[in-house]
Specification:
The protein has twelve helices and no strands. The protein has helices at 5-10, 29-50, 57-65, 71-74, 79-82, 86-104, 109-120, 122-126, 128-148, 155-166, 171-179, 188-191. The longest helix is centred in the N-terminal third of the chain and has 22 residues, at 29-50.
């Protein structure tokens, strides 16, 4: 029997996000996970190099790459449903954990120790705050992109996410919002090209 873990992971591109909203720029969980990994790595570097707090940015990026991998088996449950009640949230967390256990079970035994911590073990717990913040930053960036594309469908989500990010207790988030977020409002000419 062949090991199926990476074949499952490659199917992340088939799971769409924001299913209850009209999207000008469709996004799947593979694209989203890449951006969350980039942002989690950045937040980790900011934590370590700006605020002097011990952090492994590479571990944060690796956890972020797999943070939505359970959705390969569960699909992406829309946020209003996922967080409708404590009972639903708790039940869904159990379903996500079962999906992660299933995915991990498709790896050869000699690789379990490297991947299990990233999906639901110590590394995932250690990096939870950074990955969660990166996830919110990624969603906020998606809202900005939709607004810039003329789609008003995301305006409410953009406002809510901005408020959440501005209230974040993580100084890394405030630093990122101040130093890097304004550039997401620019077009390619304003960003500049290789001149």
């Amino acid at each position: 029997m062949s090991d199926k873990f990476f074949a499952y992971i490659s199917r992340m591109r088939y799971i769409g996000r924001w299913s209850l909203m009209r999207n000008s720029l469709p996004e799947n969980i593979q694209e989203h996970s890449h951006m969350v990994a980039v942002l989690a790595h950045a937040l980790g570097v900011i934590r370590r190099d700006v605020f002097g707090i011990a952090c492994d940015p590479n571990e944060a990026a690796a956890v972020a790459l797999y943070h939505d991998s359970s959705e390969i088996l569960t699909g992406d449950l829309p946020t209003p449903i996922k967080y409708h009640s404590r009972a639903i949230s708790s039940a869904y967390k159990q379903v996500e954990k079962l999906a992660c256990v299933k995915l991990i079970s498709t790896l050869p035994a000699e690789l379990l120790g490297a991947f299990e911590p990233l999906l639901y073990g110590e590394a995932a717990e250690r990096q939870h705050d950074l990955v969660k913040a990166a996830d919110k930053l990624s969603a906020y960036i998606k809202c900005i992109e939709e607004r810039k594309a003329g789609n008003k469908e995301f305006l409410s989500a953009e406002k809510q996410l901005r408020e959440l990010l501005e209230q974040s207790p993580l100084p890394e988030v405030g630093y990122f919002m101040e130093h890097f977020m304004p550039a997401f409002e620019l077009n390619i000419d304003e960003l500049g090209t290789m001149e």
